[in-house]
Structures are given as C-alpha cells and as structure tokens.
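Reopening closed ticket. The problem is back. First fold of the pair:
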Amino acid sequence: MTNTETALKETLASIEGATGAALVDYTTGMALGTIGGSKSFDLTVAAAGNTDVVRAKIRTMEHLGLKGEIEDILITLSDQYHLIRLIKGRGGNGLFLYLVLDAKRANLAMARHQLKKIESDLEV
C-alpha cells in the first residue's frame, strides 16, 4: 500500500513520457496532491477542470441507464494525452488519478497499465 505522495512520485518515475500527475476529489474539484506540471500548465487548474469531465460522464451514464463502471477517460491533444483513472475501493470513492503524458514519448497502453497498478496499490 502506498500513500498519495509516494504514488504520485512513482507515477512520474515509472511512466515514460509522464509530465504531471494529480490525485483529485471530483466531489469538490480539489487536488489532494500534485507532482510535475509547469508554469504554463497548472495541474491544480487542470484537476479542477477535469472534475467537470468526470461528473458529466457519470451523469450521462446515469441518464442512459448504463450499469458499467468507468475505468478511465482519455483525452488526446495534438501533443499530449490526458488520462483520468477513477479510484476503486479502499476509500477511493469520489477520487481519480489524473496523468498528463507527452504524446511523442509516451506509450499509451503501457501508461494505462502502469496507472492501473499504481491505483491498485494506493491507500487513500
């Protein structure tokens, strides 16, 4: 079991092309922890904005009567991938891991695999 700080550090260290990561509470929009980012890319602002994405998808699934669970949400930009992984179990209800990847350096399949492993080890 890893804590938030350790999980975020592992995310940047173990995922090729990762430039930033955050643990976010989508009920409040607050980032519980961040690592990486830059002056031109504020992870706290991105985390708050992506709570709207998660809420919209959950609301849409409810309206459609879909019973499946969201594993992750992928947003592709011309030079970045933004990966949102909802936390399951151990008090993680209402939380997601947010990962920013450099599209030129990242292997998306491996990033998803690693993020899933990090999520399963995370103790919130």
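Second fold of the pair, where the issue appears:
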Amino acid sequence: MDTERRVYKISELNNLTKELLEGQFSDIWLEGEISNFKQHTSGHLYFALKDEVAQIQAVMFKWQASYLKFRPEDGLKVIVKGKVSLFVKAGKYQFVVSYIEPLGAGPLQVAFEQLKRKLEGEGLFNDEYKKELPLLVQKMVIVTSPTGAAVHDMLSIMERRFSNVHVLIYPVHVQGELAAGEIAAAISDINEHFTDIDVIIIGRGGGSLEDLWPFNEEVVARAIYKSRLPVISAVGHEVDYSIADFVSDLRAPTPSAAIELVIANKTELEERLSSLFARMVSSMEFMFGDYRNRYRRARENRVFRRPMEFCERFQQEADYYLERISTSVSHYVRLKDDYVRSVIGKLNALSPLNVLSRGYGITWKLKNNEVLRDTAMVNVGEKVKTRLHKGEIICEVLEN
C-alpha cells in the first residue's frame, strides 16, 4: 500500500480551492452585464456577470445589498467589486460581490430613473390626481430643516409680501439616512392632525444629488401622493429635479419661488381691489346717469304732464271699440238666428209628425212593434197600434 498517497474529501478539496481563490483574488473589480437576476426571499441577490464570450455566477449578500441605492436588473452594465470564491456545498465557482456601480451612470442616477419609471407606470404623476391650490392661502406648513438658509429666505419673502399669513415650520432632516422617513411621516402627520392647513411645502436649498436624495425616495413620493392637502415641492435650484417634483401637485423651481407661488402679493391685491372699485364707481355713475335721463324723458312726456287728457282719449277709444263690438255681435246673432229658423223649417217639412197633422197615421203590430206597410203583414184578430197627429189608439183587425 502506498503510504505517500493523500486522499482528500470533497469538502476538504472545495475548502482548499475556496481558500486559494479568495487568497489570490480577494479584492478585484469586474466589468460585465447583469443577466438572470433574482432576489431571493432571504434578501440575497443572485445573478450572472457576462461579457461577449464568457460569464461567471455572482452573489451579493443581504447585508451588503441593503446599501444599494438602485435595483440591479437584467441588461444593466456594471462594475463590481468583490472576491472570487467557491460555494463549498455545491462546488460552484462564483464571484462574491461587495459593491456594484452602474457603468456610465452613478448608482443614484440609475435609482432615480428606475423609481421614476415605476411610479410613472403606476400613474402617480398623472395630472388627474393633481389638487388645485387655494386662491388665497391663510395657513401653511413648511416641512424642512429649521436651521437651513432656505427657510429663512422663505420667511423673509413672506414677511415682505404678505405678513398676515400663518406659517408653521415642521422640522425634519433634509439630508442623510433619516431624512426620507421623517419627511414622509411629517406629511402624514399634517394630513391627520392639522385640519386647518391650506397647503404643504416640502423642500430645501441646493446641493449635490446625494444631498437631495431624500426627496427621491419612494416613501416620500407615496406620502405626497396620499396627501389630501395640496403639496408643493421646492427642492434645490431650478435645474434640480426630484421624484417629489413629479408627484407633487405643484413644483416650485426654488424654495423662495414656492412662497411667491402660494402667497398673493399684497400690493397686487390692493391694486386689483382699487381697479375693481373704480370700475364699480364708473358703472354706478353710468347707471345713475341713464336712470336720470330716463326720468327726465318720462317727466316731460304728455302722459305725465296731462294725465287726464291721456285717460280721456283712451276712454273714448274704449267706447268706440265697445260699440263696434256690440254692433258686430248683434249682427252675428241675427244671422245665426235666421239660419237656425231656416233649418227648423226644413226639419219640420221633413218631419213625420208634420205629415200626421194632415190626417195620416202610422200603425204598428202590438206583438213586435213592427211598422205595417202591407195588409198581408197582419192577420184578422190581431191587435195593432196607430199613431195619429195627437195621441195613439189600439185597434183589433176585423177584416183583411
């Protein structure tokens, strides 16, 4: 028996291979395209990295994946950092990823575009869900950092333009890990407990994409969408766009511009009121002048200067027309009376009763009231009834 022979167990070999690979390739960068991406229920990420001719399986564990600002997806070209390793149990060669960076665009920019596509697909940006701002704001809440320069600029503009508007500052972090959760919670809290608020402004001054990132978080976007109160997004400078801008009911290019959008300029209101008052006075003067002229013309009319003459004239005209009507009615009645008499005369001439007055009669059989037109219609002994000009008689037939 060969005493020099070394027999390895599979697990030993895999562990040794794992140590060799990790020792040789412990901290390297790879460039490739993600494919077959899958997020396991455990939170670990599994995918393949490939180039034009080859590929390698990769894994990123949950605790490292939780720091990603974007979601890896198939077709995304990336640069990854990690180590070459081996999954001992399956003997599978793999790359353990500790960091992922999109190729050509920063991770935050990729995360921004991904979330924008997702929320737009759900309809959160649709105009039909945008709420109208009040015509004149009486009370507002500004959700921002109370120590930032932006809030001081906003308050200064408001004091100068319309000092009698009530403003509440809801203090939150606007930068860092805690900021997104605080902003979302503030919007929900205001909607639930602040019943007399007209509008909510969320925002902060300018900064880098990282500084403004809390306003690109999904939790903030959904809080804005669910708000029953109008929300104005005022994040950064005019060139800065955030997810909050797309979901909000109105986007202000800067925090200072947000105040100018919701607070009516006092001078503008006074000028508008003065203009309306002047138009009202002019309209009233015109109306009074018109009524004055109409009164003057009415007063000079003969009807008012000699009212009895006017009444006498109409009384005479009324008598004239009444007489004409009476004459016409009398003539019409005479014509109709003559016509009726003529008709009556014709009816009397045709009436059977008129014939009877000349000595004729009408005879019926008593049995069935049948009018006799022939002697053959009656037998001897039958009774008949005869109608004379005046009265009726009942007779018995003695001979036929």
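Update: turned out to be a display glitch only; the data is intact. The chain has three domains: 10-104, 113-264, 356-396. The longest helix spans residues 307-350. Please close again.
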